[in-house]
Design goal:
By secondary structure, the protein is mainly beta. Helix content is 6%, strand content 59%. It has one domain: TonB-dependent receptor, beta-barrel domain (Maltoporin, Chain A, Beta Barrel), CATH 2.40.170.20.
């Protein structure tokens, strides 16, 4: 029996033992029920347990208690199967030496274009390159993050092949004006500042936030700074209609410090923005949404590369209850994306145009959801037809079932297809481009068991999946020419386990594990991930201790073999609330001073310390 098999058997044995536990241990002496979470990433708001797909929700409490300013490192810890590479104290970078590569169960692409990032439901990938920029997403103004850990292309189309990360910004809930400021300073001359303000009066509300991060970095030429802001407004016209608008901006500068002792690479100057307007409706047995979004950016690199890109469109969906327990959702998506890219230093300074074009996507979809046996059984089936102006038609089916077998036990099963259309870069830019590329696709099959114990104080979730992909875009050389082709294939299978427990009014524990078996290893993806977080809260004091273990992280290939990384990280923090308005905190990262890399050739910093203050007005 292999080590992984023994581990899996241990997990199943533990769940089976707990399934028949009749009473909580004596140390669970308080009734602190774990609430069911409502998610909106499924297009219509549903209880998380009733959705057939694997969904993890990270709420503002977990985000704020980490004292992180970058959002993705938090998700990489708390979402099983999700791993995001880093290269320094803060700042991911782009171009050569960039980190911020997202791997969801080994699926993500390099650069990431197989996992879709949403901001309040709006697609965030760049119009030319087709991937998001990790630096653009900070914790400033984030209410919660909903992560679909399996294909969601039936709902969101291309780029949701491996899953979806939906970042949802804050909205004021109480009338009046409120404001808060958070500031911290620490190792490597790192400073972080966030400020928020909100105002609500009856049906009208506004929220605004601004953040600034800067660091000298732990290596020469690894400095980074970013200024980001967000604004959100809502107006409830009546009990049936709500209109809203979102706006966000991020501007950051960084430099590639180079691998090991190599000379520093290029410097980048990037500006990203997004705005959207929309309306939600709710009339008795029907509800829906209509929104317009636009995502845009300008990128400048000191090697002469300069680009302006855009990605805009309309998204419409409407749900109706035709009979008891049934919900039919019909939707349509329309997107236009493109831009202009050039090298301003090429041709002896005359400049060289690399790209100036756009493409579009059109799609229609249907999702049918049926509730049976008084909410014990949920049947879900959906179908999407997606058209890409270059790659053509792509059919996308999905089916799933959720069954509440007993009061505290939930079973899920689903089969879903995911796909990704080729990007403008792959179709038309540089010497490897191929305008005959087709869409990548995969089919994911998974089953899950969710179990609540001891008056809902303890919750576990076990998921097993099998994913097979085809037509992956990769390069091959024919007649001396290297070009992109649809040649790739993969089989990924794995297991994920989540657990959360409120021990009493002072202590709580969250933990997760993911194991992944890949027939062809993927860079920036670990074979096993472990994470555990112990939190303490009493009166004015709070503290946490977080542990993460990464086993066999695939860094790079050397002489035909993979270079793999193993490491442990131990982080801790403590806070003290002076009164309602003021709170101080201390945090230390990498207490074990571990030496490790996430991005090949880019050593991560050792032990780091930070001190900060929160002020609520």
């Amino acid at each position: 029996m292999t080590r992984s098999t023994r581990l899996f058997a241990l997990i199943l044995g533990s769940l089976a033992f707990n399934l028949f536990a009749q009473a909580p241990p004596s140390f669970l002496d308080d009734t602190l029920a774990l609430e069911e979470v409502t998610v909106s990433t499924t297009k219509i708001e549903v209880q998380e347990f009733s959705a057939p797909l694997s969904i993890t929700s990270i709420h503002s409490e977990a985000i704020e208690s980490s004292s992180e300013s970058a959002l993705f490192p938090i998700l990489s810890e708390q979402v099983p199967g999700l791993f995001i590479t880093e290269r320094g104290v803060t700042g991911f970078g782009v171009s050569t030496g960039a980190a911020g590569q997202i791997s969801m169960r080994g699926i993500g692409g390099n650069p990431t274009s197989q996992v879709l990032i949403l901001l309040n439901g709006n697609p965030q990938y760049m119009g030319i390159m087709g991937h998001p920029l990790a630096d653009a997403y900070t914790t400033s103004g984030v209410e919660r993050v909903e992560v679909i850990r399996s294909p969601a292309s039936m709902l969101y189309g291309s780029n949701a092949m491996g899953g979806v990360i939906n970042i949802i910004t804050r909205e004021p809930h109480d009338d009046g004006a409120h404001a808060s400021v958070k500031a911290q300073y620490g190792s490597f001359n790192t400073a972080k500042l966030m400020a928020h303000a909100s105002w609500k009066h009856k049906k009208l509300s506004f929220y605004g936030g601004i953040g600034y991060d800067r660091t000298d970095g732990h290596r020469d030429s690894s400095d980074f700074h970013i200024l980001n802001s967000t604004l959100r407004g809502n107006y409830q016209l009546n009990s049936h209609l709500r209109i809203y608008a979102d706006w966000s901006m991020a501007h950051f500068e960084a430099q590639d410090p180079g691998a090991f002792d190599a000379s520093a690479g290029e410097r980048i100057n990037i500006h990203r923005g997004m705005y959207s307007v929309g309306a939600d409706n709710r009339f008795g047995k029907t509800q829906g949404s209509l929104r317009f979004f636009r995502n845009f950016g300008e990128h400048s690199i000191t090697d002469g590369f300069h680009s302006k890109d855009y990605n805009y469109g309309l998204a419409l969906h409407q749900s109706v209850n035709l009979w008891k327990g049934q919900t039919l959702t019909l939707g349509s998506d329309m997107k236009q994306f493109g831009g202009r890219a050039e090298n301003v230093l090429a041709m002896q300074g005359k400049g060289l145009m690399l790209l100036d074009t756009s493409l579009y996507e059109r799609a229609g979809y249907m999702l049918l959801r049926q509730e049976l046996f008084s909410g014990r059984l949920f049947l879900n089936g959906g179908y999407r037809m997606d058209y890409h102006s270059n790659a053509g038609w792509e059919p996308v089916p999905m089916a799933g079932i959720t069954w509440r077998g007993w009061e505290k036990t939930i079973f899920k099963a689903s089969v879903a297809k995911g796909f990704r259309n080729p990007t403008l870069r792959e179709l038309y830019m540089f010497g490897t481009a191929n305008d005959q590329l087709k869409a990548e696709d995969m089919v994911n099959t998974e089953v899950s068991v969710i179990q609540h114990f001891w008056d809902d104080k303890f919750r576990t979730e076990l998921t097993m999946y099998y994913a097979e992909g085809h037509n992956l875009i990769g390069s091959r050389t024919l007649a001396g020419r290297t070009q992109l082709w649809n040649t790739g294939h993969f089989i990924h299978k794995g297991v994920e386990l989540l657990a959360s427990c409120k021990l009493n009014r002072q202590f709580s524990v969250t933990a997760n594990y993911s194991g992944l078996n890949m027939d062809d290893p993927v860079p920036g993806t670990p074979e096993q991930q472990w994470y555990a977080n112990l939190k303490f809260k009493q009166n004015k004091w709070g503290a946490y201790l977080a542990w993460q273990h990464i086993h066999h992280l695939n860094l790079t290939q050397l002489n035909g073999s993979w270079v793999k990384e193993n490491y442990h990280l131990l982080n801790t923090g403590i806070d003290y609330r002076v009164n309602h308005w003021v709170q101080f905190f201390l945090k230390a990262d990498n207490l074990l001073n571990a030496s490790y890399e996430m991005n090949a050739g880019y050593p991560m910093p050792g032990i780091m310390g930070f001190v900060g203050i929160n002020v609520n007005l």
